[in-house]
Amino acid sequence: MLDLMRPQILFPLFAPIASLKGVGPKIAPLVEKAAGPLVRDLIFTLPQAVIRRPWAKAVSAIEGQTQTLAVRIESHQPPPRAGLPYRIRAFDDTGFVSLVFFKGAGPHLLRQHPPGSDRVVSGKVERFGVETQLVHPDYILPVDRAEEIPQIEPVYPTTAGLSSRTLRKLVLEALERAPDPPEWQDAAWLAREGFVSWRQALERVHHPTSEADVLPEAPARRRLAYDELFAHQLAMAERKADRRRLAATVIPQSLAAQALQDALPFALTGAQARTLAEIRGDLASGERMSRLLQGDVGAGKTVVAMLAMADAAAAGLQSALMAPTEILARQHYETLSGPLAAQGVSALLLTGRDKGAARAQKLHALASGAATVAVGTHALFQDDVVYRKLGLTVIDEQHRFGVNDRRRLSDKAAAAHLLAMSATPIPRTLELTLYGDLDVSRLDEKPAGRKPVATRAVPMARLPEIVERLRGAISSGAQAFWICPLVAESEDSDLAAAEARAAALAQALGPDKVGLIHGRLPSAAKDDVMAAFVEGRLAVLAATTVVEVGVNAPNATIMVIEQAERFGLAQLHQLRGRVGRGERESACVLLYDAPLGKIAQARIDVLRRTDDGFLIAERDLELRGGGDPLGLRQSGFPAYRLADPAADRDMIAVAADDARLVLIRDPGLESPRGQAVLILKALFDWKPQTADLG
Ligand code: ADP
Ligand code: MG
């Protein structure tokens, strides 16, 4: 944890929690679980709610949930037999109240609160028959310490064994160590938003005076959230600037690419032309490109990449296109090699299947430069693969690669331009959050003439009817995907459900007609089943959700999704995108367990109305009812603790702009504000998640 670059003013906050008086070896792991390992993490652990503890004038006037009142102890009543609670009877002029203990009672209670002593008590009021009682009161204090009972008490997120009150004590101790750093935000923005200083904001969030103070909209909370967003955007803006500074070979637009484009059986869509121009701008700039091409399945990303690779070839540079699976790599190779060859550009396919002499020959072709375009899987970036002059790397479905694959790639392709492609459209506002360190091109228009996929929601009770229709369809040559339910509890139960479904379908449709793929299958076996489906040897491909995205099976026209209500909208859209690629009418059947909840109904309606992945992603974000329907966490979404990327969308854009401006005006962060920004940066210490893209 020792970081010599860390500003001294932050040292107290970067001390381990064990350095706090109240944290001993027993509770340290609990605090770490609830908050984190550092003092800083405690001050960033915000209360989630408040408890009001209003004073009751008298025992007879007790009403409501939680009350504070003054009483005199009358007597102690240890449990007459096991299983009954320990009771302390207390009273005032107006009546009696019992303090009840089911556990933790003992002689110490009698010592601490002897009969006749006056106490202030606070806790949740319960009626038990005619009795009024406080079960495990939160406070029993001598009258002279009454002010220790907060009228409004913040409630902190706890874990088993660690109470909110203990955590609060520690948070307050941590808070005392928080410095009052120089202001890192723009003064005009703070004034406009009515934000107080960072130190003051911390005080306010930890000393709420009303329910409104613990809502995300509370100004002090927004201030802290903005700091977090700004620090994150700054990290990404720096990363982006660093990448840009890397020199890369200039790749001009080429006649060869134009000829290739002219020879295509279709014209580029407007969006393809625009994104290609954006890519070409980067390639010709002399700075290293780091661009993400976002577009729905079927939007035509491959062609755009191919034209960029043709430009690279014309400039005497090699390109590598990496796909997440062997079958996808092969499909790309089949798409690209012909048109490229027609322009005199030689391509080869390299996957894990290449072994021995055949592989050696391909490696030689790459090392000598005899092959100009390499298409393949992560096999393209194994240690012994050498390129003569790699100028452009394209990663298809970039989010599906593991960190190691990406790192190998960035080692090998340090000087090459990078084009990452993703078929998961995300809302523009989240784009900054996820990919703020990349330039993003949006392919938001599909080739003309695509037929919309007729989408229907059907209750599970009508399953037999759906299977019957499916039988009819496949007897006339149709192919179908069948996505098996997502049980989520365990992979085993998912798998069992999928196997049972595949078996039932095989029985209904014919034993040779149904294949099954799932996450446990080795990837070669997955490829085999997929290939059998693509080549038409199987009519139905049953799959758990862990199936390969992006595989082209143009003959598949039916998509059945079981328990569709459990999937996120974006995921349903992705799945549906696998059909409707050919000339024929396609259908998507969303099977659901009735009755549908409101949100699930709204989701399905959105899907029925539109086929625009970007729009669907926006709606998904609006409809999200907690959880993670976009699957963002999986794709490395930053773990914000103060900000909520959905609620704070407006602030993200402001933060991104401001971060960029700060760096343009003061790249070395040497000005007074720059120095303060350095402190903020260290406070959050963000590592952009796409950093491993190189
Ligand atoms: P993506 O990778 O974005 O999912 P692909 O690049 O695989 O999409 O393209 C899907 C299909 O659309 C391919 O068969 C491709 O040849 C075709 N295609 C691409 N661009 C166009 C276009 N402008 N007009 C018509 N068809 C196109
Ligand atoms: Mg694709």
Structural overview:
The chain has 694 residues and is α/β, with parallel strands linked by helices. The protein folds into 4 domains: 8-49 and 159-215, no CATH class; 54-149, Nucleic acid-binding proteins (OB fold (Dihydrolipoamide Acetyltransferase, E2P), Beta Barrel); 255-443, P-loop containing nucleotide triphosphate hydrolases (Rossmann fold); 454-610, 3-Layer(aba) Sandwich (Rossmann fold), CATH 3.40.50. Strands 11-12-10-13-14-9-15 form a 7-stranded parallel beta sheet, sandwiched between helices. The longest helix is centred in the middle third of the chain and has 27 residues, at 219-245. The protein is globular, with a radius of gyration of 32 Å. The protein binds adenosine-5'-diphosphate (ADP) and magnesium ion. Adenosine-5'-diphosphate (ADP) binds at residues 266, 268-269, 272, 295, 297-303, 423, 447, 550. Adenosine-5'-diphosphate binds at residues 266, 268-269, 272, 295, 297-303, 423, 447, 550.
